[in-house]
Amino acid sequence: MRLMLGAEAVVIPLGALLAGFAAFSLFLLVLGKSPVEFFALVWKAGFSSAFSWQNTLSRSAPLVLAALCVALPARLGLVVIGGEGAIVLGGLAAGVTGLAVGGLPGVLGMGLMAAAGMVLGGLWIGAVGALRIKRGVNETISSLLMAYIAIALFNHFVEGLFRDPGSLNKPSTAPLAESLRVGDMPFISAHWGVVAGALACILCWILLEKTTLGFAARIAGDNIRAAQVQGLPVGPLVIGFTALGGAFAGLAGFFEVSAVHGSANGSLIAGYGYTGILVAFLARHNPLAIFPVAILLGGFEASSGLIQRRMDLPDATILVFQGMVFIIILLSEALYGRFAIFTPAYWERR
Amino acid sequence: MNTPKSLNRRRFLGTTAASLAAASLGGLSARPAVAQTALTVGFIYVGPKDDFGYNQAHAEGAAAVKAMEGVTVLEEENVPESQDVQNTMESMINFDGAQLLFPTSFGYFNPHILEVAPKYPDIRFEHAGGLWTPENPANIGSYFGYIGMGQYLNGIAAGHATASKKIGFVAAKPIPQVLNNINSFLLGARTVDPSITCQVIFTGEWSMAVKEAEATNALADQGSDVITCHVDGPKGVCETAVSRGAYVCGYHADQSPLAGDLYLTGAEWNWAGIYTDMVAKTQAGEPIDNFVRGGLAEGFIKMSPLGPAVSDAARAQFEATRAEIEAGGFAAIKGPLNDNRGNVIAAAGEAFVETDIALESMDYLVEGVLGSTR
C-alpha cells in the first residue's frame, strides 16, 4: 500500500511524459514526418552509444545546477527565473579569480574559483530574496530583470576592465592556466561538473527532506502565515534558500568557464539558466528528480542536430517537443489526488 | 583537458579497418576507379541560414557545394558558441561520417575547434576568421576575406548618394574587423566629398534586432541619409532605413530584395568559390593551405549589382576603384590621416595596404567618424 501511495509521484509524471510524446507524434504526423523515425533518432543521438552519452551528459551538466537555482526557492513558494544572471556573474567571478590564483596548486586554485563563483551567484540571487522580504518586490520579476542587469555588467567588465588585450575580435578575460581547467571524467569525455551536479542534488535533497531547515522551508512555502505564527525565521530562510540556489548557479558558471571555455566571454550567455527552469518544473522541484530530468532534456537537445540533418526539420523542433511535454506535465499537476488507487482510503476499503 | 584515449583508439581502429576493407574490396572488384570519392561535408551556422546576413552568406556557399558530384552536405543552424558546437561537430563526424567541417562562426574557433580537432586527426576543420597559427593542429585551417575593401566601395556609392553629407553605420562591437569596415566606409565616401561625416552606433551585440532598428532610427533622426551596418543579420537595419527613406548599402549578403530601389550596392561574401575549391581539393586528395586569405581579385568577396539610384558619375568612380583594388596593393588607410581624437594614424606617404596584418589589430576610428570605440 505504501508502495502504491508513493507510486503516484512516479506514475503521473511518466504518464504525462508519454502523453507529451503522443501529442508530439500527432504534430509530426500533421507535418507528414514519421514519429518512429523521430524517436529512433532521439534514442540514437542521445542515449544509444558512449558518444551519445558523452553528448547528453555534457549538455545536462549546467542544467542540473541551474535547475537547483529554481527548485530551492520553489520550496518556499518562490518562483525565481533569473538563474542566468547568477551563471554569467559566477563565471565572471571564477574567470577573474582564476587569473589571480594561477600560481597556486590546481585543486586549490579551482576551489577558490568555484568559491568566488558561488559567492557572487549567491549574493545575486540572495539579493532577490532580500528584496522580496525587505521590500515586498515580486521575486519572479526582479530575478528576471536582474538577469538582464547581470548580463549587462558581465559585458561591461569583459569588454572593459577585465578584457584580455589579446582577445581582439572576441572580448574575453585572459585565458586560464592549464592547471585551472577542470578535466574530463575517466572513460567519458564529459567534465566533472556532471558529478558536482549529482552531488549537489543529493545534498539539496538531504537539506530539504532530512533537516529541520528543510522542514521549516516547506512550512513557510505552504503557508507563510502559519510559519510566521509558529515563529519560524521566514526572512533568513528566504534569503538563505535563494542565496544557496544562486550559489549553485554560480557554480555552473565556474564549470562553464573552467571546463569548457577557458576564459569568461560572451559564449557564457547561452540560456542554460532558462532551460534550468524547465528542468526544475519537470522535476516538480524534487532535487533527486532533477538529475534524471536534466539528462532526459540533455538527450533531447543532443538529438536536435541529427533531427535537423536527417529529417529536414527546423532546429526549433526540439523546442516544440519540449514545450509540449512541459505543458502536459504542468496540466498533470491537476491530477494529483484524483486517482482513487493512489489514496489510503482505497487500500483501507480492501 | 584529457580526452579518453579509448574512444580515439577505437575510432582509429574502426576507420583503419574500414579503409583496409574498402581498399581490398576496391582491389577485388572489377569496377573502374571513380574519379571523385564520396565526401561528406558539414556546415555549422550560429544563426538562421536565411538571415539575409552572415549565415546566409555561408549557406549560399554550402548550396554551391551541394551541387557538386559525390558530395553529401550536412547543415545545422542556430548552434551556439558553447559546448553545443563541440557536440554538433562530433555528432556530424560520428553519426554522419563527415570528413570536412566548416564551423563558420567566429567564436567556434577558440576553444571549441581547438578542443575537438586533436581528437579527430583525419578530419579537416575549416574556420572562417583567420585565426590559425602554426602552433595549432595541422588539421585545422582558416580562411577569410578583405571585406573592408567592399565597405570602401560602399562608401563611394554612399558619398555620391548622400545629400545631407551625413552617412550612418550600425555596428555590433568595436573590434578590429568592424572598425576597419567603418573606417573604410567613411574613407570611401570622403573620396567623393571630404566634408562627409559618418555617425556610428554600436549595439554591443552581434544579433539584436530591436537595438539595430533603434540605432537605425537614431541615425535617420540625426540626418544620415545613407546607412550601412556590420551586424550578423542586416534585415532590421535595411527595413528600418528604407522605412525612413534612407539609402542602404548592404553587408554580408545581398539585401536588395529588402531595400528595393533604395539599395545602392553591398559588400558581400562570396564563399561559393572558396568552398567548392576546398571540397574539390579534398576529393582529389590534395592538401588545403592552413591559412587562406583573399579579396575582390581572388573572388573571396563581391559587390551587389549597383542599384538604380546610383548615378553615372558614381558608377564610373566605383568601377575605376574596383579595378584598382583588383589590381592589388590598394590602401584605404593612407597618410596623412588622423584618428577622430587627433592622433596620427599614418603620416604623409605612409599606407596600410589591404593585406597589412596591422589592420587586424585596429583600435581607432578615423577622423570624420562620429563615435567612440569605448
From TrEMBL, chain A:
Keyword Transmembrane: yes
Chief localization: membrane
Compartment(s) where it occurs, according to its Swiss-Prot or TrEMBL record: Cell membrane
Segments crossing the lipid bilayer: 56-74, 86-104, 110-131, 143-162, 190-208, 229-252, 264-283, 288-307, 319-341
Biological source species: Roseisalinus antarcticus
Pfam families reported for this sequence: BPD_transp_2
Protein's membrane topology: Multi-pass membrane protein
Protein name (database record): Beta-methylgalactoside transporter inner membrane component
CC annotations in GO: plasma membrane
Keyword list, A-Z: Cell membrane, Membrane, Transmembrane, Transmembrane helix
Coiled-coil annotated residue ranges, if any: none
UniProt superkingdom: Bacteria
GO molecular function per UniProt: transmembrane transporter activity
Keyword Glycoprotein: no
TrEMBL record, chain B:
GO cellular component, one term: plasma membrane
Keyword Amino-acid biosynthesis: no
InterPro entries with a match to the protein in the record: ABC-Purine-Binding (IPR052910), PnrA-like (IPR003760), TAT_signal (IPR006311)
Domain ABC transporter substrate-binding protein PnrA-like: 40-312
Keyword terms: Signal
Name the UniProt record assigns to this protein: Purine-binding protein
Superkingdom of the organism of origin: Bacteria
Annotated organism of origin: Roseisalinus antarcticus
Signal peptide residues on this chain, from the entry's feature table: 1-35
